[in-house]
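Researcher: We're teaching a course module on how sequence relates to structure. For the next exercise, students receive a sequence and then see the predicted structure as tokens, so they can try to spot secondary structure elements on their own. Here is the exercise chain.
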Amino acid sequence: MPYTSINFNKKTILITGGAGFIGSNLAFYFQDNFPNSNIVIFDCFRSEAKFPNGNLKSLGDFKNLIGFKGDIICGNINSNDDISLLHKYNFDYIFHQAAISDTLVFDQEYIMKTNVNSFYDILEIAKTQNSVLIYASSAATYGNSPSPQTIGHENPLNPYGFSKYAMDQIAIKFIKKNPKMHIIGLRYFNVYGPGEFYKGSTSSMVIQLGHQILKGKSPRLFNKSKNIFRDFINIEDVIQANVKACISSKSNVYNIGTGIPRSFQDISDILQKELGTNYETDYFSNPHNSYQSYTQADIQTANEDFNFNPIITLEIGIKNYIPEIKRLYKEAY
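Model: And here is the predicted structure for the students to work with:
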């Protein structure tokens, strides 16, 4: 559904990380609602390269783009040669989603070069081409700061969170130097929904627990999961935020969540209800030293500045997601 009065038809739209979870959903949103828009996806796509923690270095997957009709450029945001391929376009809107988003990667140099250095390039493209720039930030910037998490009270616990914090500071400085530009950072909280499967072990607990249950196994949760709360937001509401951010009269950084924290136990219970199972939960010790135990987005400014209003509850989001979870389970197992 169109979330704003903006007519994106005949507009040229760049989506970096467009073969990933959020990027691919954005691509199909514009393709479905504005078929005459010119959509350009820039993504390095997945390879077999892995981090020391065993997770894939690149998460974009061609399967997320089956049916996509726009332009695709396979490129790495760390490569000046690859970035130069974007200069032949004149972008009206840029949605910058490309990043190393694995919170368990501790190679600070690699994360900072990928997430931060490349951001300067994207900012310069937006400036030169007079593009509206919407970029992905993260709730990881807050670490274990008190809830509800509010802009200006950041305390990142890992390199990823710090890289996003650094991007936000760079954006704020850039805005001050270029007040006519439209730049908005969206701090995503825990996003779930169709398109995340190819993130592997970094996908949400919704699909991971769903597949555990479909295997006939008890859902595995950390001890005291009833007391671990996260702000889970459905991908459709994240798309709403990105699109509505294009109409904001202000350049700023905003929280994108529901404002309603839910527990991992809630996810497990809702999944079991929807899948018709009643397994005992298998609890185990949390192996992570740094862990966000309670996140809740303060979304007041996003609501005030561009009418962001999340509408999908966790119950409805999971219920609607079940057919896709089942389909992917059959495909993978």
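Model: If you want an answer key for the exercise: The chain has nine helices and 13 strands. Residues 12-192+235-257+294-311 form a domain with the Rossmann fold fold (CATH 3.40.50.720).
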